[in-house]
Design goal:
heterodimer; A: mainly alpha; ABC transporter involved in vitamin B12 uptake, BtuC; 3% strand; B: Rossmann fold; Rossmann fold; 2 domains; six-stranded mixed β-sheet; 24 strands; 33% helix; globular
C-alpha cells in the first residue's frame, strides 16, 4: 500500500514537472561536459535561436489544445517577411511595413480559421493547402528572390539589444507571458481546453466553438506574422525560402512540452521547457560540430522519446 | 448444485479505494445470474477481473474447479469468457462478418478468404444474424443489432461464460425482447450468463439467481427468485429503506413559461406544439427512436429547426445555437454524458464552472479562481456530489455524480427552463432519488423542468404531465392522474 502511494506520488511529480527535471539534468550535464556551452555568449545565442519557434509555439499551443493543427506557419513566416520588406521599400515607412506583415499573417490565420473552424474541413489537409498557397504567394510577390530591406532603422527590431539582451528574446518572453495569462486566467483559454477535451460537451455547455477556434487561428496568424517580421529584420531581408519546415519544429516543441495532439491538455510552462529542449539540443549539436545530416536523426529520436514518455504518462 | 464459475475471496484495491472486498460466490452452469448494486458497488470491477482487464489483488477465480489468473483479455477469451460491455468494441467501417471473426479471419495462403468468412459467420450463428447482411457495414446497423454481433463473437469463441454489462440501456423495447430470447437460448445451450443491470424488472424476468453488491462487498446471493421482491433487493442495495424512490409532492403550476408551436426539424416528423408552465415538471415518454432527444436538442438550439416558433415567458425568441438558448434561460443536460456532457479529463470544478465563468471575473477579463472554487464547492455540497475534492478528475466519478455535476453547471446560472435528457440513465437508485429531489426543488423555485425518459415508472412517478412521443411526433398528452402504464405504452407503440 505504502509503495503504491509512493509510486503514485512519483508519477504525479513526473506528470507535473517531469520535463523540467529532464531539462535541468540535461542542462547540468551539458554545462559540465560540453565546452563553451555554459557561457554568456552561448546562452544568448541559444535563446536567440529559439525566438521564432518560441513565439509561434505559444499560439500553436492554442490551436493544438483545441484539437486542431496548423501547418502553414513556416510559409507564413516567409510570406509576412516579404510583405513587410516590400511595403517598407515602397512606402519608406517602418511602422507601415511591420503592420502590413502582421496583418498579412492575420489574414492567413483568418483563412485557416474559415476553412477549419467555420467550414469544418480537416485541419491537416486545410493547412497543408494554405501552407502551399502562402509559400507560393511569397514567391510570387518576391519574384522568387530575397527582398533586401533599404531602411536600416528597421534592423533595430531584430538586432538591437536592451540590457545586453537581444530584442527578439524580450519579444518572445512578453508573448509567452501574454499567452500564458490568456490560457490560464481567461475564459478564452479555459474554453479552448474544454473544446479540445470534448467538443460536443463544450458546445452544449454554451461555448461558441466556431468563434473560439477561429480566434485561435487568427491569433496564430498574427503572432506568426510578427515572428516573420522579426526574422526579416534579423536577416535584413524578406526571403521566400525562409523557415522551411518550421511548422514541424514548432509542433515538435509543443509535443515535447506536453501539449496533447488530441487536444484538451496544454500548459505554458511545459511549452517553455519544450522550446528550450529543442533549442538546447540544437545548440549542443552545433557546439560539438555534429554534421547536419546527423542532427536530423538526433532531433527525430528526441521527438520519439518525447511521445513515448507522454504515452507512459497517460497510462499512469 | 455445483458451481461452474466461482469467486473466492476476490479482492481488488486501488490506492485509497477498496473496489472489491473478499467477494465469494458461485454461479452454476446453464444459469442466468444477475448482479445488482449501486454504482461503485463493485459489479464492474468484478467483470473487469473476469475479462482479464484487471488483476485481482488477492483471491481466486475458478472455472470448472480450476484456478485461473488472467493477465490479458485474450487469456480470458481463450478460457471461454466473454464480457459484453455497454460500449461495444466493433469496427464500424468493417462488415458484419469481418467483425464477427475479428482476430481469427480465415485465410487461403496469405490472402483473406472472404467466402469462407461469410460462410462461417452465417453457418454458426444464423439465428443471431436473422435480418442482417453479413457483408453489410456495421456502421449502418442500429445498436441492438450491433450487440447481437458482440454476442455472436462470444459464441464463435465458444465462450462458456458470457457476461453482460447493462446491455439494454440503449436498446428499444423490441430489441430488448429479442436480446432476452437470445440470452435464454444461451442458457439452454449450457452457457453461464452473468447479467448486470440497474433495471430490476429485467433481473426478475430473466435471472435464475441474483447477487447483491454494496460498497465492494457481496451482501447476499439469492438462488431462488421466488424468495425475492424488488423492494427487498433495493433495501439490500442501498442498505436502508427507501419507501418510494419518486417521493412525489404535488405542486401548484404557474403561467406558461416555455411554449413551442409547430416545431419541425431533423429527426422529427410532423409539427410539435406544447407548453410548460412555471413550476411544472413535464415528462416526455417514448421508446428508442421516438424523437425525444431530437426534440430537446432542437429546443436547445443544438440542431437547426426547419420551422416553428419558440417563446419564453410570452416572448417569441429566435434560438439558433446553444449560446442563444442559454441567453434565453434554457439549458440542456444531454443524454450521453460521456460524449456530450462531461469533460472527462478536466476536474470537477472545471466541469461545473464551464458555463458560468463570466460571473466570476476580475476586471472583467481575468478568472477569479477562488470564487470559482467556492462556487463549485457550494454546488458539490448542495447536490451531494460524492468526490474526494473539486480537483478530482471528472472521469473518475460514478455516473450519478457526473450527472449531478452536469446539472450543477446550470444551477449557478439563473436558468428558467431545464431540459434533461434521460437524466437517470445508468445511475443507481440512491443517485436517482437525489436527482428527482433536485428536479422537484427546481420546480418549487418556479422553474420549468422537461425531462425525457424511456423508463415508464419513472415518467409516471416524477412528471406532473406527460407528453408521449412516437415516430418523431407527439402521440398524446396525459395528465399525471390519468396516466397508466397501459395507456402510455399503447400511445408510444407504433400503430398496427
Amino acid at each position: 500500500m505504502n509503495r503504491e502511494y509512493l509510486s503514485r506520488a512519483l508519477i504525479r511529480l513526473w506528470i507535473n514537472s517531469g520535463m523540467v527535471a529532464v531539462y535541468i539534468v540535461m542542462f547540468a550535464l551539458f554545462s559540465l561536459f560540453v565546452p563553451y556551452f555554459f557561457t554568456v555568449r552561448n546562452m544568448i545565442g541559444l535563446a536567440l535561436s529559439i525566438t521564432t519557434i518560441g513565439m509561434i509555439a505559444s499560439t500553436m499551443l492554442f490551436v493544438l489544445a483545441a484539437g486542431d493543427l496548423d501547418l502553414s506557419v513556416g510559409s507564413t513566416v516567409a510570406f509576412t517577411g516579404i510583405i513587410a520588406a516590400v511595403v517598407m521599400n515602397r512606402t519608406g515607412s517602418i511602422p507601415l511595413g511591420i503592420l502590413s506583415g502582421v496583418l498579412a499573417g492575420g489574414l492567413v490565420g483568418w483563412l485557416n480559421g474559415t476553412l477549419v473552424a467555420l467550414w469544418k474541413l480537416n485541419p491537416l489537409i486545410s493547412t497543408l493547402a494554405t501552407m502551399q498557397i502562402v509559400r507560393g504567394a511569397g514567391m510570387i510577390v518576391s519574384n522568387g528572390a530575397a527582398v533586401g530591406i533599404t531602411l536600416p532603422g528597421f534592423f533595430v527590431l531584430g538586432c538591437g539589444t536592451v540590457l545586453g539582451i537581444p530584442n527578439p528574446i524580450w519579444f518572445t518572453l512578453v508573448i509567452f507571458i501574454i499567452f500564458g495569462i490568456l490560457l490560464n486566467n481567461t475564459i478564452y483559454g479555459k474554453n479552448i481546453l474544454a473544446i479540445g477535451g470534448n467538443r460536443e460537451a463544450a458546445r452544449l455547455a454554451g461555448i461558441n466553438v466556431e468563434l473560439t477556434k477561429n480566434a485561435a487561428f487568427i491569433l496564430q496568424g498574427v503572432v506568426t506574422g510578427f515572428a516573420g517580421v522579426i526574422l526579416a529584420s534579423r536577416m535584413t531581408s524578406g526571403q521566400p525560402n525562409a523557415a522551411l519546415g518550421l511548422e514541424l519544429d514548432v509542433i515538435a516543441a509543443c509535443v515535447l512540452g506536453g501539449v496533447s495532439l488530441t487536444g484538451g491538455v496544454a500548459t505554458i510552462q511545459g511549452l517553455f521547457i519544450g522550446v528550450l529542449i529543442m533549442g538546447t539540443v540544437q545548440d549542443v549539436l552545433n557546439l560539438m560540430n555534429v554534421q547536419t545530416f546527423y542532427q536530423y536523426v538526433v532531433r527525430g529520436a528526441i521527438l520519439v522519446a518525447a511521445i513515448v514518455l507522454d504515452r507512459m504518462k497517460q497510462r499512469k | 448444485m455445483e458451481s461452474y464459475l466461482e469467486f473466492r475471496d476476490l479482492t481488488k484495491t486501488f490506492p485509497g479505494v477498496t473496489a472489491l472486498d473478499r467477494v465469494s460466490f458461485g454461479v452454476s452452469r446453464a444459469t442466468i445470474h444477475g448482479l445488482v448494486g449501486e454504482n461503485g458497488a463493485g459489479k464492474s470491477t468484478l467483470l473487469k477481473i473476469l475479462s482479464g482487464a484487471f488483476r485481482p489483488t488477492a483471491g481466486d477465480l475458478l472455472i470448472g474447479g480450476k484456478k485461473k489468473i488472467f493477465t490479458r483479455t485474450r487469456d480470458a477469451l481463450k478460457a471461454g469468457i466473454a464480457v459484453i460491455y455497454q460500449e461495444l468494441n466493433l469496427v464500424p467501417e468493417m462488415t458484419v462478418a469481418e467483425n464477427l471473426l475479428l482476430g481469427q479471419w480465415p485465410r487461403r495462403f496469405i490472402l483473406l478468404n472472404k467466402k469462407e468468412m461469410t460462410h462461417r459467420a452465417e453457418s454458426q450463428i444464423r439465428d443471431l444474424l436473422e435480418d442482417m447482411d453479413p457483408g453489410g457495414k456495421v456502421r449502418h446497423l442500429p445498436i441492438g443489432q450491433r450487440q447481437m454481433i458482440e454476442i455472436g463473437k462470444a459464441l464463435l469463441h465458444d465462450a462458456g461464460v458470457i457476461a453482460f454489462d447493462e446491455p439494454t440501456s440503449s436498446l428499444s423495447r423490441k430489441e430488448t425482447g429479442r436480446l432476452f430470447e437470445i440470452i435464454k437460448t444461451l442458457r439452454r445451450r449450457g452457457r453461464t450468463v452473468l447479467y448486470v443491470s440497474h433495471r430490476l424488472e429485467e433481473i426478475f424476468s430473466l435471472c435464475d439467481a441474483v447477487t447483491v453488491f454494496r460498497d465492494g462487498r457481496r451482501i447476499e446471493t439469492f438462488t431462488d427468485m421466488k424468495e425475492v421482491t424488488p423492494d427487498l433487493l433495493i433495501r439490500r442495495m442501498v442498505g436502508r429503506e427507501i419507501r418510494d424512490i419518486y417521493d412525489y409532492r404535488p405542486r401548484n403550476g404557474g403561467e406558461p413559461l416555455l411554449e413551442v408551436k409547430n416545431l419541425r426539424g431533423p429527426g422529427l416528423k410532423g409539427d410539435i406544439s406544447f407548453s410548460v408552465a412555471r413550476g411544472e415538471i413535464l415528462g416526455i415518454f417514448g421508446l428508442g427512436g421516438a424523437g425525444r432527444t431530437e426534440l430537446l436538442k432542437l429546443i436547445f438550439g443544438a440542431e437547426k429547426p426547419a420551422a416553428g416558433e419558440i417563446s419564453v415567458a410570452g416572448r417569441t425568441v429566435v434560438i439558433g445555437s446553444p449560446v442563444s438558448a442559454i441567453r434565453h434561460g434554457l439549458c440542456l443536460c444531454p443524454e450521453d454524458r460521456k460524449t456530450e456532457g462531461i469533460l472527462a479529463e478536466a476536474s470537477v470544478n472545471e466541469n461545473i464552472n464551464i458555463s458560468c465563468r463570466r460571473h466570476f471575473l476580475k476586471a472583467g477579463i481575468f478568472l477569479d479562481k477562488r470564487k470559482e472554487r467556492e462556487n463549485a464547492g457550494r454546488l458539490i455540497v448542495r447536490l451531494k456530489i460524492h468526490t474526494p475534492s473539486g480537483e478530482e478528475t471528472m472521469g473518475n466519478l460514478s455516473g450519478g455524480n457526473q450527472q449531478k455535476a452536469v446539472l450543477a453547471r446550470w444551477l449557478s446560472e439563473n436558468m428558467a427552463v431545464f431540459l434533461l435528457d434521460e437524466p437517470t440513465r445508468g445511475i443507481d437508485v440512491g443517485a436517482k432519488h437525489e436527482i428527482y429531489r433536485i428536479m422537484y426543488r427546481l420546480a418549487e423555485e418556479g422553474k420549468s423542468v422537461i425531462f425525457a425518459s424511456s423508463d415508464l415508472p419513472e415518467v409516471m412517478g416524477v412528471a406532473d404531465r406527460i407528453l408521449v412521443m412516437r415516430n418523431g411526433g407527439i402521440a398524446g398528452k396525459v395528465a399525471r392522474q390519468d396516466a397508466s402504464e397501459e395507456r402510455l405504452l399503447s400511445m408510444a407503440l407504433p400503430a398496427g
